[in-house]
Design brief:
Blueprint: E1 2-3, E2 6-7, H1 17-27, E3 35-36, H2 40-47, E4 53-55, E5 61-62, H3 67-74, E6 80-83, E7 90-92, E8 95-96, E9 101-105, E10 110-113, E11 126-129, E12 132-137, E13 142-144, H4 147-150, E14 164-167, E15 170-175, E16 178-180, E17 185-190, E18 198-204, E19 207-209, E20 214-218, E21 221-227, E22 230-232, E23 241-245, E24 254-260, E25 263-265, E26 272-275, E27 286-291, E28 294-296, E29 303-306, E30 317-322, E31 325-327, E32 334-337, E33 345-349, E34 352-354, E35 366-370, E36 378-389, E37 397-401, E38 408-419, E39 422-427, H5 430-436, E40 455-457, H6 464-467, E41 469-484, E42 489-497, E43 506-512, E44 518-525, E45 529-535, E46 540-558, E47 562-565, E48 571-574, E49 578-584, E50 590-597, E51 605-609, E52 615-619, E53 626-631, E54 639-646, E55 655-661, E56 666-667, E57 675-677
Parallel strand pairs: 4-6, 6-9, 7-10, 8-11, 9-12, 10-13, 11-14, 12-15, 13-16, 14-17, 15-18, 16-19, 17-20, 18-21, 19-22, 20-23, 21-24, 22-25, 23-26, 24-27, 25-28, 26-29, 27-30, 28-31, 29-32, 30-33, 31-34, 32-35, 33-36, 34-36, 35-37, 36-38
Antiparallel strand pairs: 1-2, 3-5, 38-39, 40-57, 41-46, 41-47, 42-45, 42-46, 43-44, 43-46, 47-56, 48-55, 49-54, 50-53, 50-55, 51-52, 51-54
């Protein structure tokens, strides 16, 4: 029998319904088929090497779940596999890719994540670990997950349910596909084996749409080329960028990575971000280049570069943005944070920044930033004839110093300032930079010397309502101190709360005794309350550390008076207005309190009150470091002061910090709960 020039051998099974359905699907690939049977002869020919190009439908199709069929097709050894358009989505759970294979998704094909599946935190739609020579081509085809489902209560919060996950792979090509609505990234380039990077990766003509964490994440890559790719509408959990280059370990690398003619648009985070603090000076130097790329309407910065700040901690290399266009971001057009002048070189050549942060006049088209903990001068950034087109009357470049007194060096080049149809050339001289970005010179007062000092409670019996610290939420590290006598039964009730849509599992809580030995260790489940109990083995100061990561720890109840501790670093708080008390020891004649927010968009209002409740100093909208310097008329006799933290009048109150100088680094919820140095 011949149909349209094709000779078809008809056997007895043709009379069967299954064979007729299979034949119809083969002849009419666009027809909607609920189920298709296996083509055993074709499968056998593939296995014997007679056929190099196979169709996925030969292994069958089930409109409810085609996982087994598609996985068998991939595992068949076919050099080229065509995922054919059968008129319905290929509904699957996770699919493992194979080396040495090209997969062509026909136009109109949709591979759809099965509803109710992907319960594992790392379950991806397609994944490959330590594989090579994989090509995925799909012009007009879509790989789609169910982002909204993964955000629901029946799923454990996670950010690693990717559409495509490649870890430690080589010679990878992804062309033409739309990657939509993942529970993580559209494409993830990570590590399956330490020291093995992704090599020779080409991503072209791809659309990453409405993914949960990023459009694309690049953890480690060498010889990466991304062309003509759109990354848009990322929203769900931070960083929520168009693309994020973010190694996790110093051994990972970003070498010869190029983006060309790409677009980020309307992402809830940055457009293009390089977050490089995990890389060190001993890491392989970075080489990342962006050519003719655009960012439109991203919620934070269009382009953001962050590195470590110390000479041995900051990676070397080069990051370049050439002929890029950054427009209508809600934050700064360009943000460079912590990058020391002697770190990697960052160049912006003939880039254009148009109307960034139009509703945030306190920001600027270009922002340099020293975050908390930075110590070396920020710089090593060149702006070669970059155009700034800003509708807001403000300086084109701003410096935010959250570290306090960190300078700027080696910021060079020329900006072309356009306004009302006129262009002004602005060479970046030291004098102009000093005018735009004056360096804050803070008087350096030392932290309290803890060595050899013992502490005791100001009052022996503190009522429960005076010792509870529910007003304070702490992110990253919650550090607390309390005084207990040998044999005391100590109990602490914590909650492990969520920030935004950050995921979590359990929060470790560790208790260390006065002698430095671990006394107790506990876990608090995510979004639940948990209790830590121990019997004090000795008398003295106990230190409690909670580790909530990007979420927050909150101490709801305590059997003993507890203070927040900033012994080694500023006390970090999250959305924690209220009155905090600190002790000014006997003999102190001056002290300082530093407060600051995080970045340009987050700030705090702070007021220092004396022991009588009188306002001594206050500051509003403190985004960068503000130092209250208090000089007493006569040395202190030993007294309780108050720091009132409130929502700022113009900016958001999220992350904020307190750094006490000269006085003990403890904040208490009441005067009665204070710890004081022993005599």
């Amino acid at each position: 029998m011949r149909i349209h020039g094709l000779r078809i051998l008809m056997g007895p099974c043709v009379r069967g319904v299954a064979c007729l359905l299979g034949l119809a699907a083969w002849l009419l690939p666009g027809a909607a088929m609920a189920q298709m049977q296996r083509n055993e002869q074709a499968i056998r020919d593939v296995r014997l090497g007679k056929i190099q190009e196979a169709k996925a439908s030969w292994w069958g199709f089930d409109s409810q779940d085609s996982t087994r069929m598609l996985q068998d097709a991939i595992n068949s050894g076919a050099r080229k596999l065509v995922v054919d358009n059968v008129g319905k989505p290929w509904i699957v759970t996770g699919i493992a890719l194979a080396s040495n294979q090209e997969i062509l998704f026909e136009r109109g094909v949709e591979v759809l994540a099965k509803k109710g599946a992907f319960k594992g935190r790392n379950d991806s739609l397609f994944y490959a670990d330590l594989k090579e020579n994989i090509t995925l081509t799909g012009y007009g085809a879509t790989l789609r997950m169910r982002r909204a489902d993964y955000d629901g209560p029946e799923y454990e919060k996670a950010e690693w349910r990717h559409c495509l996950s490649f870890r430690s792979c080589s010679n990878i090509k992804v062309h033409g596909l739309t990657l939509a609505e993942s529970g993580g990234d559209g494409i993830y380039l990570g590590t399956a084996k330490s020291g093995v990077t992704n090599k020779d990766v080409h991503i072209k003509d791809v659309v990453c749409d409405r993914n949960y964490r990023q459009g694309i994440s690049v953890i480690t890559a060498e010889n990466l080329l991304i062309e003509n790719t759109v990354m848009k509408d990322t929203a769900g959990t931070a960083p929520q960028a168009g693309i994020d280059f973010e190694p996790n370990h110093p051994s990972e690398r970003l070498v010869n990575c190029v983006m060309r003619n790409c677009i980020t648009q309307n992402n809830k985070g940055h457009g293009y971000v390089l977050y490089l603090p995990p890389l060190k000076a001993t890491s392989e130097p970075v080489s990342v280049r962006f050519e003719n790329c655009r960012a439109i309407g991203d919620q934070l910065s269009s382009a953001c570069v962050v590195t470590a700040n110390t000479p041995d901690g900051a990676v070397k290399g080069t990051i370049e943005f050439i002929n890029c266009h950054f427009e209508a971001s809600k934050g700064a057009g360009i943000n460079v944070s912590d990058k020391p002048a002697n770190g990697c070189r960052v160049r912006f050549e003939k880039c254009t920044v148009v109307n960034p942060a139009a509703e945030a006049a306190n920001q600027a088209p270009i922002v340099l930033m020293a975050r908390q903990g930075a110590g070396d001068p920020i710089g090593g950034v060149e702006f070669d004839r970059c155009v700034i087109r800003d509708s807001v009357d403000r300086v084109p470049m701003k410096y935010v110093d959250s570290a306090g007194g960190v300078g700027i060096e080696q910021v060079t080049g020329t900006l072309l300032l356009e306004k009302d149809g006129k262009r002004q050339e602005a060479p970046l001289t030291k004098e102009l930079l000093a005018q735009w970005m004056p360096i804050m010179r803070l008087r350096v007062l030392p932290r309290f010397e803890m060595k050899g000092v013992t502490f005791k409670p100001l009052e022996e019996a503190v009522p429960a309502e005076k010792r509870n610290f529910a007003l304070a939420r702490q992110r990253r590290g919650g550090n607390y101190v309390l005084y207990a006598r040998q044999g005391d039964e100590v109990s602490l009730r914590f909650t492990y709360g969520q920030v935004g849509r950050y995921s979590g599992r359990t929060m470790p809580v560790m208790v260390t005794g006065p002698s430095g030995q671990e006394v107790q260790r506990a876990q608090v489940a995510f979004k639940e309350e948990g209790e830590v109990r121990f019997t004090a083995p000795e008398t003295g100061l106990y230190r409690v550390k909670a580790e909530p990561g990007g979420n927050y720890a909150r101490l709801l109840e305590a059997s003993h008076a507890v203070s927040l501790s900033g012994e080694d670093q500023p006390i970090r708080l999250y959305l924690s207005p209220g009155n905090y008390y600190f002790w000014v020891p006997e003999g102190v004649s001056e002290f300082a309190v530093r407060v600051f927010g995080e970045g340009l968009g987050e700030a705090v209002k702070a007021t220092v009150l004396d022991p009588n409740g009188k306002v001594v100093q206050e500051v509003d909208n403190a985004a960068q470091t503000h130092q209250f310097e208090v000089k007493l008329a006569k040395p202190s006799a030993g007294e309780a002061w108050c720091l009132r933290l409130e929502k700022p009048s113009q900016l958001a109150m999220e992350d904020h910090y307190v750094d006490l100088r000269v006085v003990p680094p403890f904040l208490a919820p009441s005067k009665e709960a204070l710890l004081v140095p022993g005599k």
